[in-house]
Amino acid sequence: MKMLLAGGGTGGHLFPAVALAEQLLREQPEAEVLFVGTRQGIESRILPRLGFPLRTIDISGFVGKGLGAKLALLPRLIRSLAQSRAVVREFNPDVVVGVGGYAAGPVLAAARLLRYPALIHEQNARPGLTNRILAPWVDRVCLSFEDTAEAFKRVPTVVTGNPVRTALVHSHALGDGMPTLLIFGGSRGARAINDAVLDTLPELESMRGRIRLLHQTGDEDLERVRAGYRAVGWDDGGVVSFIEDMAAAYREAHLILCRAGATTLAELTACGRAAILVPYPYAAGDHQTDNARALAERGAALLLPQSELTPQRLGQLLRELLPDRELLTSMARSAHALGRRDAAEVLLQQCRQVARKK
Question: Which among 109, 206, 249, 300 is most buried, taking Cβ atoms within 10 Å?
Answer without folding.
Answer: 300
